[in-house]
Design a protein that fits this description.
By secondary structure, the protein is mainly α. The chain has 9 helices and no strands. It comes from Chloroherpeton thalassium (strain ATCC 35110 / GB-78).
Length: about 170
């Protein structure tokens, strides 16, 4: 199945994708704060996304909450580190762009029927990165909430996720 080939290529080449993203994010005029970071710090920001992408894009309910929490906490962390939200969002857009460029450069899509599947996979990637950007933004906006209130049962995270979950579950069906 083409979908599995996409995932395998991405996960098998997570390191190469990460290196390409680092080059992009360090030189892009929309992400000047990232140019000041060490290669190791930048690596840690995106490698997990690429290496876990297959698990995360399956769209199973169990992984949705994990995705939401990961990116919400990422947003909080970036806000506390002093990043501009626009830079964080753009860095995530670059992660998606680098990923899709890599897939097209690898020549995985070779037949007309592959184009339809590639389009479906592209939509799934966009959906994943849209969720990531949404929860990063929520995380950015939640820095005023104490950590224990964020994670407590029925707390901020649960309320945000439950509200958003209605749309997520409807989309899985």
């Amino acid at each position: 199945m083409l979908y599995n080939r996409f995932i395998r290529v991405i996960e098998d080449h997570a390191e190469s994708l990460t290196e390409q993203w680092i080059k992009e994010v360090r030189t892009n005029p929309s992400t000047p704060s990232y140019a000041k970071l060490s290669k190791e710090d930048l690596h840690d920001m995106v490698y997990d996304i690429y290496s876990k992408l297959g698990y995360w894009v399956k769209k199973e309910e169990s992984s949705l909450k994990e995705i939401a929490e990961h990116f919400l906490l990422t947003g909080r962390k970036r806000a506390q580190e002093g990043y501009k939200l626009s830079e964080v969002v753009y860095a995530n857009i670059l992660a998606r762009v680098v990923l899709w460029q890599y897939i097209t450069d690898e020549g995985i899509v070779s037949e007309g029927i592959d184009l339809n599947r590639a389009f479906e996979f592209s939509q799934r990637l966009s959906y994943f990165f849209d969720k990531a950007i949404y929860f990063i933004t929520v995380g950015f906006e939640s820095t005023h909430i104490e950590e224990h209130k964020l994670r407590e049962e029925g707390g901020f995270f649960d309320k945000v996720f439950d509200t958003f979950r209605i749309w997520l579950i409807r989309d899985i069906s």
